[in-house]
Amino acid sequence: MPIHILYFAGAREAAGASRETLERAPATVAELRRALEGAHPALARILPRCRIAVDQEFAPDDAPLRDGAEVAIVPPVSGGAPRFQVVDRPLSLAEVVDAVSGPGRGGIVTFTGAVRGESHGKRVVRLEYEAYAPMAERKLAEIGAEVARAHGVEVAIVHRVGALAPGEAAVVIACAAAHRTPAFRACEACIERLKQDVPIWKREVYDDGSEWVGLGP
């Protein structure tokens, strides 16, 4: 049986249609993404930032597709502050919580990464964060989109740069879902991916010198 695809906003313009029907249902959401990218080259540019809803519920990429399903291609929604930012000001956990809160999201899990006052037995005077900001924000958005698709959550991440004293927050993350388990898993996935893929560096400054983290002996 066929499946029915609905396009909205920028996705509709990229696909050149508000709806279409595929005569055969791909096995999974991931396979559907690949099929749509092949059929609509203009859609390939924005599809990684879109979420996919199956029968009016957001679905991860490994979710199966049933015959006759209604599938919506959902671009990022408008409203509120940007969810993925690199800033040079003090952070507030409330800004990421507010960005992901909404009716039906009963589980909100947060992470705050704060500057420690000691590292490897040395007193830390301050941390100095540096970023390739445009790429870092794009990578944060990519991570957020991938985690959102994988766990069916809403994600917001804000990272601070500049000189931070012990106790100050360097990064705040919030993940919201209908239930707590996917929100917990998503929050952990975000910080692990951030540490691996986002071009943000930190220098630990001690009483007797300094060291770029990851480049030490």
Fold and architecture overview:
- About 30% of the residues are buried.
- β3 and β4 (about 55-60) form a beta hairpin.
- It contains six helices and 14 strands.
- A five-stranded mixed sheet has the order 2-1-5-3-4. Strands 8, 9, 11, 13 and 14 form a five-stranded antiparallel sheet that branches.
- The model has no long low-confidence stretch (mean pLDDT about 90).
- α5 (about 135-150) packs antiparallel against α6 (about 180-195).
- It has about 220 residues and is α+β, with helices and mostly antiparallel strands.
- The chain is elongated.
Shape: elongated
Number of helices: 6
Count of DSSP E strands? 14
Averaged pLDDT, please? Answer: 90
Main pleated sheet: 5 strands, mixed
Rg over CA atoms, rounded to whole Å, is: 20 Å
Structural class: alpha+beta
Helix content: 25-40%
**SSE order, as H and E?**
EHEHHEEEEHEEEHEEEHEE
- Separation of the first and last Cα atoms: 61 Å
Which strand order does the major sheet show? 2-1-5-3-4
Which residues sit in consecutive blocks of at least 5 with pLDDT less than 50?
none
Portion of residues in beta strands equals 25-35%
